[in-house]
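User: structure tokens for this one?
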Amino acid sequence: MAKNYDEETIYAECDIVRCDDNSTNWVSFVYDEKTIVTDQKGEDIEELLKHMEENKDRVFAYIRVETGDEMSKRQKFAFLTFIGTDAKPLNKARVSTDSKSLQSTCPDVAVNHFMDGEPDPLEEIIEKVRKAGGANYNAQA
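Assistant:
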């Protein structure tokens, strides 16, 4: 099946999020007709969730979350799939295959998080990433 996005462009955008030399913590992708393209980038993940809520259609995102404790900080990455309230049924159906394909292009995904209707609270997403990250020695206190 042919991909409806440019794999090299998507990978390069995700690489910006993965890079420690900048403050970009997320990149979003949307549909332009039937092609998935880069939408926005930013530092604050709350901005991304607000953008998703305003979009009301379909948005994919690759985010960076810092996990760990004082002794061991780690960067973990999550792939978010959002289907807004204005997405048509056929477009909703297309998201599942596109999401899987797109996620395979984004490196080091620890968590795949799906949201339908309204974006989930940031704390819920971060908690899911932390649980996927393994040992959390802060939990002993």
